[in-house]
Amino acid sequence: MLLGNLNFAIGIRRYFPIDKKLLALIHGRLNWNANRSKSIDNGYEKINPSKNIYSIVIDPGLCYLLNKRFGLEAFLQGFSLDYAPKSKYGTPAELSGRFSETGSLNIGLFYYLK
Length: 114
Known about the structure:
Helices cover 0% and strands 72% of the residues. The protein has strands spanning 4-17, 22-41, 44-65, 70-76, 79-84, 94-99, 105-111. Strands 1, 2, 3, 4, 5, 6 and 7 form a 7-stranded antiparallel sheet that branches. A hairpin with a 4-residue loop joins strand 1 (4-17) and strand 2 (22-41). The N and C termini lie far apart (43 Å).
């Protein structure tokens, strides 16, 4: 039995030139997350129901081009819209939107295929 999280995402980035080396970017992705957990209830181990969460995530950022093939990118975790359908275990459907609670800054070196 699978415990923990299973996550699958597909994303895309769009770049907007500011000058020759600096670009603004929008990073968007569709995300699917399924999770299960174990707990102890009255001394017995219990598997909590799986919950599927579908998300649309939009993150803003900047890119500095080092040359034609490499760039340094930084983006903030931004806005997400989450949907969790009603499960077969009776948990109600949920729709929520939020801005990142962590304010995480992601920085990386990227290679561009041209």
